[in-house]
């Protein structure tokens, strides 16, 4: 079985072709550079750039794979959650291809794409415990199967990647912030500033990064003659130290809640063997190493997709599309893209729906 996947829900225009032997036949990713000067993704600019490039990206992907369009079995596209202008572009392209080729269309939840990537790259078996950390989401889930998730906890405010991006913006480091913070943190003293661990003792598995970001803001403001972040006078070492302290604290917040999630996972899913991290922030080596230690200590296997498959890409959509199609899922051509689309949308709502108590 061969599936084409299209991704366009944020600032990457991407396509890939994978097969059911877990082989990537080709992939193409175009990261939009247009947003750098704005310190974040501008939705209208993103939508226009997707529209401009999507056809050539798909064409190039077929060419690289040496596969003829008529040889694929299904066309998948990220149909949400995400920036709706971009999502519509990818979904429209996928539906047009599906119609022209007379092949099924598969609508993929972008988060399910991230969530299932480790099954392609590491052959991880269901069920597994997943930390999903991206620019828009931060969740702890049990992945039980295709379309079958138990959400244990979520951020109540900023996503982890969003916090990296906002801290980077305050430090004038540009967008996306995560890779730059990671690079500078390597030269920093992670113990110089003490930062808070929001919700550490909340008794549940939810997370919060807004207070952490505010604490970083206060430190930066204290280096400014007029208290304004943009006028702060920071030496390169000060900046590196702030990056290191933020990265360490954000990681500790995640590890602390994951320790509790592992306890729940082991009690409730005794067959589960793996801790998986996915999403853009999973590209962070400091976080990956911390999670690897945690998994080892907890006697779980650890899997993280190769760094290039952590940030948005077409492979994750093609693979999730393939798994869905194998399960018998496909979608009608009038499927409406969903700007909001929780992963556990099909789960029965628990009373209070606040996730697992820990
Ligand atoms: O999954 P993704 O590509 O897009 C979304 O679905 O949101 O994630 C992008 C996020 C951005 O916030 C970016 O700063 C973060 O992932 N990121 C990182 C690193 N690389 C990307 N955060 C921390 N360390 C990194 N090395
Ligand atoms: Zn993503």
CATH architecture of the largest domain: 2-Layer Sandwich
Gyration radius, rounded = 20 Å
Distance between the termini: 42 Å
Using the coordinates shown, work out and report the CATH topology of the largest domain.
Nucleotidyltransferase, domain 5
Strand content: 15-25%
- What order do the helices and strands follow? EEEHEHEHEEEHHHHEHEH
What compounds sit in this structure?
A: 5'-O-[(R)-(carboxyoxy)(hydroxy)phosphoryl]adenosine, zinc ion
Overall pLDDT score: 96
Structural class: alpha/beta
Provide a quick synopsis of the model:
The protein is an alpha/beta fold and 358 residues long.
Task: Tell me what you see in this structure.
Helix 5 (177-185) packs across helix 7. A five-stranded mixed sheet has the order 3-2-1-4-5, with helices on both faces. With 358 residues, the protein is of the alpha/beta class. The longest helix has 33 residues, at 236-268. It has helices at residues 43-65, 84-101, 110-122, 160-170, 177-185, 210-221, 236-268, 285-297, 314-326; strands spanning 2-7, 12-19, 24-31, 74-78, 105-108, 128-133, 138-145, 148-154, 274-278, 301-303. The chain folds into two domains: 2-116 and 308-326, 2-Layer Sandwich (Nucleotidyltransferase, domain 5); 126-304, ATPase, nucleotide binding domain (Nucleotidyltransferase, domain 5), CATH 3.30.420. It is globular, with a radius of gyration of 20 Å. The protein binds 5'-O-[(R)-(carboxyoxy)(hydroxy)phosphoryl]adenosine and zinc ion (ZN). Zinc ion binds next to helix 3.
Architecture blueprint of SSEs:
Elements: E1 2-7, E2 12-19, E3 24-31, H1 43-65, E4 74-78, H2 84-101, E5 105-108, H3 110-122, E6 128-133, E7 138-145, E8 148-154, H4 160-170, H5 177-185, H6 210-221, H7 236-268, E9 274-278, H8 285-297, E10 301-303, H9 314-326
Parallel strand pairs: 1-4, 4-5, 6-9, 9-10
Antiparallel strand pairs: 1-2, 2-3, 6-7, 7-8
Helix pairs in contact: 1-2, 3-9, 4-5, 4-6, 4-7, 5-7, 6-7, 7-8
The protein binds 5'-O-[(R)-(carboxyoxy)(hydroxy)phosphoryl]adenosine and zinc ion (ZN).
């Amino acid at each position: 079985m061969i599936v084409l996947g299209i991704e366009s829900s944020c600032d990457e225009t991407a396509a890939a072709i994978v097969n059911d032997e877990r082989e990537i036949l080709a992939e193409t990713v175009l990261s939009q550079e247009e947003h750098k000067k704005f310190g974040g993704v501008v939705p209208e600019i993103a939508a226009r750039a997707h529209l401009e490039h999507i056809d050539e990206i798909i064409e190039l992907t077929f060419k690289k794979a040496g596969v003829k369009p008529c040889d694929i079995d299904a066309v998948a596209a990220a149909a949400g959650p995400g920036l709706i202008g971009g999502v519509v572009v990818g979904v429209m392209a996928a539906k047009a291809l599906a119609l022209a080729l007379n092949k099924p269309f598969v609508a993929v939840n972008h988060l399910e794409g991230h969530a299932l990537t480790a099954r392609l790259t590491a052959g991880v078996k269901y069920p597994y415990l997943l930390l999903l950390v991206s620019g828009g989401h931060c969740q702890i889930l049990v992945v039980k199967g295709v379309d079958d998730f138990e959400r244990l906890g979520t951020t109540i405010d900023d996503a982890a990647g969003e916090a990296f991006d906002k801290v980077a913006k305050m430090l004038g480091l540009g967008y996306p912030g995560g890779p730059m913070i990671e690079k500078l943190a390597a030269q920093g003293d992670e113990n110089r500033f003490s930062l808070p661990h929001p919700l550490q003792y909340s008794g549940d598995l939810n997370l919060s990064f807004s207070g952490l970001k505010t604490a970083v803001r206060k430190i930066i403001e204290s280096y400014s003659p007029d208290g304004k972040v943009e006028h702060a006078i920071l030496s390169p070492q000060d900046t590196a130290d702030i990056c290191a302290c933020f990265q360490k604290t954000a990681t500790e917040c995640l590890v602390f809640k994951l320790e509790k999630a592992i306890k729940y996972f082991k009690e409730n899913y005794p067959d589960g063997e793996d801790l998986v991290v996915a999403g853009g922030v999973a590209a962070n080596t400091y976080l990956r190493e911390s999670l690897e230690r945690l998994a080892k200590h907890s006697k779980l296997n650890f899997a993280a997709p190769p760094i290039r498959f952590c940030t948005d890409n077409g492979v994750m959509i093609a693979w999730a599309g393939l798994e869905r199609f194998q399960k018998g899922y496909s979608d009608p051509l009038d499927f409406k893209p969903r700007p909001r689309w929780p992963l556990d949308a099909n789960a029965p709502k628990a009373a209070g729906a606040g996730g697992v108590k820990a």
